[in-house]
User: Which sequence fits this backbone?
């Protein structure tokens, strides 16, 4: 009986998750702890007797404000100034100078930071554009996000000092002002940025800027990874529509697109120094050969049914680490991470083993990818914090530990996370964040 009830409750939670996905594109596993906690908090308000009533309410036409509030509580708005600096470096050294050289004199250069969160991305792009073009051309940066709360923070644009760790020193004073323990974009940087609410998953897909026309560059980073493959294809096709021919789309490092999505969207993958982007090809042109033949995909390859499951590979790898040696275990963890690129457990195990083998760079990449894959799962953050602390990157380590502590604080204290109880691990992370 208990199992039947549990199954029913779970299917109502699935209805809620489905409603969230229909509205925002974001896929949640109803059993994910963060989802459960947010759901429990909403029910604790007392307006709905149970999950079924809540799901029914969300499915009714009156749902909009509650649905928006629920999505506000679920979205991850983690970001920083000059995140993924290689992309900004390419913008500075080649993309913007090339555009400036080839565009007609009076044309405004237009860049869209889609899913900009609290605006750090949009202000970083504006600062780079100013540093590169030095006023020789008008530049507009449009920053949009589904979250009204994140946009309110973007409008305020007063950030904690720790988001600046990637900002090159020569941007201080003129582009970003440090004031006590906070940092703010200067008036000139702000003047390039316009902010607006926009839902990438809205159906049908609408441009954010009906008056404005197309963009030369679009940044849409660290949001596609929350969407289902079909949503990614639809969103990417919409983004490509908004790009001028030859325009570039930058995604997050963990967000390489499948050939199918590229073909539909008339985009081609291009390799750039230290990074990659997707270029809008002319509508009339035939599909170009891919610059890179086999890009890793955001979805797990379908593969044959007899290939080993990720759980089996990881178990074997753990067993090897305990017996036959680290090298073989690491090899297997790499194989699991490559074969199942969306498996968080594979990334975490790869990170742990690489770190044990002294391969800090590889370990760091694996933990970072774990946090990108599912920013609501605390374990990747905990390991990343430890690695950053070891590397002496205290600002970032503190920030990462405090994210881990927040996520762990939402779990029941005795729930096991790795080998520790969530409460114990949360205390440890909080302490580390304060000490650093
Ligand atoms: C992890 S942040 C990424 C911020 C920034 N682009 C970066 O890479 O640092 C993800 C952002 O995507 C936004 N988001 C999620 N679903 C969205 C949607 N359907 N449309 C627009 N923004 C969305 C969230 O509100 C959040 O601010």
Assistant:
């Amino acid at each position: 009986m208990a199992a039947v009830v549990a199954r029913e409750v779970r299917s109502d939670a699935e209805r809620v998750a489905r409603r969230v996905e229909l509205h925002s594109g974001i896929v949640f596993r109803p059993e994910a702890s963060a989802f459960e906690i947010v759901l429990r908090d909403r029910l604790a308000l007392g307006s709905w007797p149970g999950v079924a009533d809540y799901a029914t309410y969300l499915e009714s036409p009156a749902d909009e404000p509650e649905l928006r509030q629920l999505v506000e509580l679920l979205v991850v708005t983690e970001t920083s100034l000059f995140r993924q600096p290689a992309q900004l470096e390419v913008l500075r050294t080649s993309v913007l100078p090339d555009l400036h050289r080839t565009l007609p004199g009076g044309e405004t250069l237009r860049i869209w930071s889609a899913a900009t969160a609290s605006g750090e991305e949009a202000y970083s792009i504006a600062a780079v554009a100013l540093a590169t073009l030095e006023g020789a051309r008008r530049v507009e940066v449009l920053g949009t996000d589904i979250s009204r709360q994140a946009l309110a923070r973007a409008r305020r644009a007063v950030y904690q000092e720790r988001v600046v760790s990637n900002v090159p020193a020569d941007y201080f004073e003129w582009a970003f002002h440090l004031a006590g323990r906070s940092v703010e974009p200067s008036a000139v940087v702000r003047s390039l940025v316009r902010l607006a609410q926009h839902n990438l998953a809205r159906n049908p897909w609408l441009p954010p800027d009906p008056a404005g026309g197309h963009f030369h560059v679009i940044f849409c980073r660290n949001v596609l990874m929350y969407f289902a493959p079909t949503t990614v294809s639809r969103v990417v096709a919409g983004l490509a529509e908004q790009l001028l021919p030859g325009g570039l789309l930058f995604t997050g490092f963990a967000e390489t697109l499948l050939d199918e999505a590229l073909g539909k969207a008339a985009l081609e993958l291009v390799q750039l120094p230290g990074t990659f982007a997707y270029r809008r090809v002319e509508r009339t042109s035939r599909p170009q050969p891919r610059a890179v033949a086999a890009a890793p995909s955001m979805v797990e390859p379908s593969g044959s049914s007899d290939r080993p499951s990720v759980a089996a590979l990881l178990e074997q790898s753990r067993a090897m680490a305990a017996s036959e040696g680290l090298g073989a275990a690491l090899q297997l963890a790499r194989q699991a991470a490559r074969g199942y690129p969306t498996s968080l457990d594979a990334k975490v195990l790869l990170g742990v083993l690489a770190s044990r083998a002294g391969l800090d760079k590889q370990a760091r990449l694996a933990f970072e990818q774990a946090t990108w894959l599912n920013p609501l799962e605390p374990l990747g953050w905990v390991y990343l914090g430890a690695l950053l602390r070891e590397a002496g990157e205290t600002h970032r380590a503190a920030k990462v530990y405090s994210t881990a502590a927040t996520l762990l604080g939402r779990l029941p204290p005795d729930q096991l996370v790795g080998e520790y109880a969530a409460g114990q691990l949360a205390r440890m992370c909080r302490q580390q964040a304060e000490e650093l």
Summary: The longest strand covers residues 243-251.
